[in-house]
Amino acid sequence: MNKKLRLTFIAYFFMAPALILVALFVIYPIVYSIPLAFTDYSAIGETHYVGLDNFKRAFQDQGFWIAMKNSAIFVACVPVLQILSILLAVLVNTKLRGIVFFRVMYYIPVITSMIAISIMWSFIFNQDGIINSLLLDMGLIKSPIYFLADTKYALFSLMFVTVWQGLGYYMMLYLAGLQSVPAELNESAMIDGASKAVTFFKITLPMLQPYIWFCTLFSLLAALGVFDVVFAMTKGGPDGATMVMNLYTYNKAFQSFEFGYSAAAGLVMSIITTLFSVLIFIYGRKGGSGNG
Q1: What is the pLDDT of residues 103-112, one digit of tens each?
Q2: Rounded to two decimals, what is the model's pTM?
């Protein structure tokens, strides 16, 4: 066995536990759900093949389109999250005293359970919570704002929590990117008379393109697949204002026991997610990574 083959074998040996878990809990359910989407599945009775009926029903279901629309709106988190993460990474990419403490503090929400975070923010967003109390004491509002019970605010409140929780994760990725930029490039540009802003936009930001590409792809998948924060904070309410596709398919499967229909709706969302991912991947390979 040559050295390259041996190293490959060792690498797959160490990856095997994770690959087995992915195969059992990700790949197998996806593959199994494909034929399920074409049936009227019954856990206790007889399962019937219904062809494309589940897909036709989905496209005619107003609830399906509401969930699709809310999932699409959730994607608006992606550019906001990426811009804020880059700015935060630039801010903490200094050698100031105590900066490590701030990096850790920003990262704590990332390693905290999203359910715990959702419960905390539910109290904060409550009509008697901190935000309403402060706004009332400052005289900025005359009555409490129902952040999670008003259709105008509920979805955007959840988006805010998602951005807040993800900031630390992407900040660390961009921080790694910033620290990989050769300091000599910035120093040379500044010696030539370039300002810090010009240096950032002309040198630093282009060097971050591979990181921006990866983080955008990753955060897009997370936005389209959002579930836990919605499930924990609003259950899709009020009046469907925060119903997203993952929660919609979950409800159809485990509350209405319409497993076939749920699989069909989930398959449609999977196809859309895959298309978005492929487009971003192609962009990153051809030009977004700075290699095109």
Answers
A1: 888 889 999 9
A2: 0.86
